[in-house]
Amino acid sequence: MSTEFENLVTRYARLMSSAARRVCAQKHLELVPDIEQEVRLALWKRLQSGKKIDHPASYIYKVALTTAWRLIRRAGPDPVPLDETTLPSPEVSVASGLTPTERARFIEQALLTLGPDESRAVRAHLAGFNHREIATLFGWSESVARHRVYRSMESLASTFAAGKGKGEETP
């Protein structure tokens, strides 16, 4: 297992570093070694658990991107201002009368009504990624990411409103 780990780290070291540098740019270059270490740790844990990595380049690249964004957020506020499409919609609070487990099930069912790209966009948005980060993560333009999040959130708001109506009618 350690040989497999060493081979993967050696083979994809440049990919890991370039993904981290791409996200960090000049402003956060000091975080690159930490990001690389976190990616190695995630890779080690994945291999330790016995889970197979079908596409190591994709896995390492995505782990590097998400780790970079997490560490940059921890380092300080995002200089990109939030716009109205990143703020939670008032309709989303419809499920507030549900328990956390019921709310999670309801949201998961609502996400299944979306297409795969829209679902990925909303999941990333709900995880705290902004439009620029979502675009980078999935290889979309920022306007495509913004559009998919906005339209999907509108669709979910409609689903939640319909779900609330049904919930109120049942005793």
Describe this structure in words.
The structure is a single chain. By secondary structure, the protein is mainly α. It has two domains: 2-75, Rna Polymerase Sigma Factor, Chain: A (Orthogonal Bundle), CATH 1.10.1740; 84-169, Arc Repressor Mutant, subunit A. It is 70% helix and 0% strand. The chain has helices at 2-11, 13-24, 32-48, 56-75, 100-112, 116-126, 131-138, 142-169. Helix 2 (13-24) packs parallel to helix 4 (56-75) and helix 5 (100-112) packs across helix 8 (142-169). The longest helix is centred in the C-terminal third of the chain and has 28 residues, at 142-169. The chain is globular and about 55 Å long. Residues 78-94 and 165-171 have low confidence and may be disordered.
Q: What composes the largest sheet?
A: none
Number of strands: 0
Kindly identify the CATH topology of the largest domain: Arc Repressor Mutant, subunit A
Helix run count: 8
**Which value, in Å, is the CA radius of gyration?**
19 Å
Unreliable spans: 78-94, 165-171
Number of domains: 2
- Apparent shape: globular
Structural class: mainly alpha
CATH class descriptor of the largest domain: Mainly Alpha
Question: What is the N-to-C order of secondary-structure elements (H for helix, E for strand)?
Answer: HHHHHHHH
The proportion of residues in beta strands is under 5%
- Helix amount, in percent? 55-70%
CATH architecture of the largest domain: Orthogonal Bundle
